[in-house]
User: What shape does this take?
Amino acid sequence: MTDDNWKDSQQSEIAATGLAPTDDRESVIIATLPAGSYTAIVRGVNDTSGVGLVEVFNLH
Assistant: This one.
């Protein structure tokens, strides 16, 4: 899965959670995943560097 600028995809679904970012450039993904272990790989646009934060929420 990839995402850049949360309003580019899933905008209405993300807004409905009440957890939408205040900055349109932030990345958000809503996904239904089976139980298990996962790895998040965070990259800047065009492989630039920066600071990243990954948060996971149970929306049910």
